[in-house]
Amino acid sequence: MKQLVILGAGTAGTMMANHLVRKLDASEWALTIVDEHTTHYYQPGFLFIPFGTYDEGDVSKPKTDFIPNGVAFLQEAIDAIDPDANAVVLRNGERLPYDILIVATGAKTVPGETEGMLGEGWRRDIFDFYTIEGAVALRERLRNWKGGRLLVHLNEMPVKCPVAPLEFTLLAEAFLTDRGVRAETEIQYLSPLSEPFTKHNCALVLGSMLDEKDIEFVPDFACESIDPASKKIVSYDEKELDYDLLVTIPTNMGDPCVERSGLGDDLNFIPTHKHTLQSRAHENIFVIGDATDLPSSKAGSVAHFQAETLTENIQRFIKGQALEEGFDGHANCFIESGHGKAFLIDFNYDVEPLEGAFPLPLVGPFRLLKQTRINHMGKLAFRWMYWYLLLKGIPMPGISHNMSMMGKKAPR
Ligand SMILES: Cc1cc2nc3c(=O)[nH]c(=O)nc-3n(C[C@H](O)[C@H](O)[C@H](O)COP(=O)(O)OP(=O)(O)OC[C@H]3O[C@@H](n4cnc5c(N)ncnc54)[C@H](O)[C@@H]3O)c2cc1C
């Protein structure tokens, strides 16, 4: 038997297991997926936990519920990849040989990268919401918060779901308004970018939204350190800002097993061909999801679109055919804006978010770059689609993996 090994049973790895078990000849290929954890978290749901909209049970299910028959699940930590020997080294010392390897080990927050972040203030008045523990701790802190200076801080790009920090800021504004403490609260959004978002069209729309809500955008803020004793965040160009509550999105990095394998860049992301998803260094290694170094967004929707191309390319690779340059950087993200409304954006490597209707031209029902209630309903419905369609590799109605220009127009 030939061995196809998938590293990571998160969003991307689980989808690939479901796609490939249907496509590969089971008499020739043995499929194994490795992950150290048994719980699958719906990470987009972490955004809602601090505000009490979802709780822990709404965002977690056993990983094995989504791993299909015909794929072996190995619960073990990955120590390293030995590409010269075509083997994965597990933390228990075992070696797992492979003919084809798919790396889907994702990205994680590393608060220790910033001086002072993990000090005495961590989860006292410095919080994250990118982990289940952080989101739950922040919920408890926000429950009785009386207001003050709230700083939402994006430390460094790239991060998973680059719109989530802005969504958090807008949802926090709505939550504090509803709780009657908005008048006592000043909100600032600190970013290392010059605009509120990486895509200019969308940055303009979101920037005016921040103005409308009286949220100050602090651009080009490159954080040097945090002083938890005096509750100050300090930039390299010596700006100092006080906070009562600091909600930070720490540096995101690929897993340390990538670094130990010598396969990553300085943030442990793996150099990957941007259209085929083949590793740039080893032809029988493919990379998908947040683990890549690609300029596409690190998002579950992106991993879903990548999975279509990667499934095709694994089959082509096995047959010795040229790979399809099929992945166009397509990303599709709802952006919660508070009080039951949301935006939707759809873009790829070459095309910025445009106005229009999605997924059906003219009909929608979702509106691109516009704030609507139905977009918010779509964001909430996405959790169901994630568990029951996306993870299982079932096509999403009306949504193609390449970005469509039908029904789109540039904003006025
Ligand atoms: C707050 C927040 C909001 C988000 N909102 C959205 C959204 O609205 N829309 C959207 O599309 N995306 C969103 N995302 C992003 C989305 O969740 C990720 O992009 C997606 O989960 C990436 O999938 P992945 O498979 O690459 O990584 P993951 O799903 O993180 O999976 C990686 C897996 O690898 C395993 N692993 C890693 N290293 C090892 C090791 N050494 N040994 C064993 N196992 C290992 C991990 O345990 C994990 O199960 C959000 C993320 C966050 C944090």
What does this structure look like?
This protein is α/β, with parallel strands linked by helices. Helices cover 23% and strands 27% of the residues. It contains seven helices and 25 strands. It has helices at residues 11-23, 132-143, 164-178, 200-212, 256-260, 300-319, 373-390; strands spanning 2-7, 29-35, 39-41, 60-62, 71-75, 78-82, 87-90, 95-97, 100-103, 107-109, 126-127, 149-154, 186-190, 215-218, 223-227, 232-235, 240-242, 245-249, 252-254, 285-287, 331-338, 341-347, 355-360, 364-368, 408-409. A five-stranded parallel beta sheet has the order 5-2-1-9-20, with helices on one face. Helix 1 (11-23) packs parallel to helix 6. The model has no long low-confidence stretch (mean pLDDT 96). Flavin-adenine dinucleotide binds next to helix 1, strand 2 and helix 6.
What structural class is derived from the secondary structure elements?
A: alpha/beta
The small-molecule ligands in this entry are:
flavin-adenine dinucleotide
- From the N-terminal CA to the C-terminal CA, the straight-line distance is 58 Å
Radius of gyration: 21 Å
Helical fraction equals: 10-25%
Number of strands: 25
User: Main sheet?
Assistant: 5 strands, parallel
Mean pLDDT rating: 96
Strands across the major sheet, in which order?
5-2-1-9-20
| Strand content range | 25-35%
**Dominant shape:** globular
Would you identify the regions where 5 or more consecutive residues have pLDDT less than 50? Answer: none
Number of helices: 7
